């Protein structure tokens, strides 16, 4: 999905395709962090849930960084935000909420 478009230059920027902008591949780290987070969501261990807070927090911070970096005006050319950028932020926020409230059954003293 496209994140932004710059109509004056005819450029459409996605997370992995950013030609003529110099942004690199900002969606690559989001994909990497989300993949690790997905695996940690599946593990029913307390250490996995605690470490998942780091990965989802980093993913949310990186998504926020991408939103600021990609959607700012450069040299008088202001981009038009597309749905993909908003979906990235919403997905990262939902992922963070899921990590904050895990479903874990703790074994221990029941007194």
UniProtKB/TrEMBL annotation:
The keyword Membrane applies. Keywords: Membrane, Transmembrane, Transmembrane helix. The chain crosses the membrane at residues 23-43, 52-71, 83-101. This is Uncharacterized protein. The lineage of its organism: Bacteria, Pseudomonadati, Bacteroidota, Chitinophagia, Chitinophagales.
